[in-house]
Specification:
3 helices; 2 strands; globular; 89 residues; mainly alpha
Amino acid sequence: MLVAADGTVRVVDLATAWVLGPRPGALRRLIFRRLAEADRVNLARMRARFTGGDPAAAAASVSPAAAARHRRGRRLKAAFDRLRGRARG
């Protein structure tokens, strides 16, 4: 949950909700770990932006591998956006 300067409350779901379960298989554990890592990277990036830090350095401090996956995912999303005509300008 985030509280804005005007006092409004925002709920942020950083990744898809995923329940590990009592006896998870290998694939479920892998997906769970990746989603948890993605949440930690995104939280570190948000905290860095809020405090004036470097979001890339904050993400790398959580997990260099997760930060690299985040960068690759953002580049892939940007490529798809360009294909769809939704490039950022």
